[in-house]
Amino acid sequence: MVDLSTLPTPQVIQALDYEALVTRQKEMFQTLWTAVRAANPDLDLPQYDVAMLQTDPVMIVIQANAYRELGERARINDAARANLLGYATGSDLDAVAADHGVTRLTGESDKALRERIVLADQGRSTAGPEEWYEFHARSVDADIRDVAVYRTGTGPELEIAVLTTSGGGTPTTELLAEITAAVDNPAVRSINDIVTVVPAVKTTVNVAAEIWLLPEAPMAVFEGLSAGLATALAAEGGIGFDVNKSWLVSRLSPGGVSKVNLTAPANDVIMDNFSAAALGTVSLTFMGRSR
Predict the structure, then answer these.
(1) Which terminus of the chain, N or C, has less C-beta within 10 A?
(2) What's the predicted TM-score (pTM) here?
(3) Which domain holds residue 31?
């Protein structure tokens, strides 16, 4: 699936720089004023040399115009974002989704809807690609956090592993039945495919680490590390997401942390294509302060 967050900022979205606008308008005024003086020597117009005075009426008008132009550029940026899949939010994203034949599920987040739109586009091809099944599985309920589609061999058998937001990640029997009905629909399933919907296998990862803070860092930094790690795994993890030691150290190293000595897990925790990591115990020991 295309990761929209990796795309560069579109050129249509302009950088907002008030000082640059003031400078440009001041230079434009000086150029025009010089031309007017040259064209009307008999008027004995003065040379403009008070641009550094904040009380100069010309500078006040220039600053007002620059502020107005800044607002117009910001509005244009907002309008551009509202029409781009990677940036649209709320009802703007709903309108973008409608262009792709997708509607928001009850309680569905912008992130989840955005991912389903991409899947809908990528899945519209012959022979039932993985994205096609993933789109229809994820369209059943907003509680579905992640879906993985994979072949179990060389034959027509394939499995769809499902991870949910609630229930500790395990889908209910009723939800699995709903997903099965959706992907087994003749309008969805390729004629030769044999599809089975299963819960994603959860692998518990216990974490232990020694933490040093910078001398000036408040203890609140240390106290928030466990919750921050859980939030990071919920946001970044999913089926097939490997919990590498380097990832754990980086997520335990927000501003204010000087050093992290990770003691568990001993090795990277590698997930297969139907497993998802679940955070187990998190044991963090405050070791003091250092630079």
Answers:
(1) C
(2) 0.68
(3) 4-82
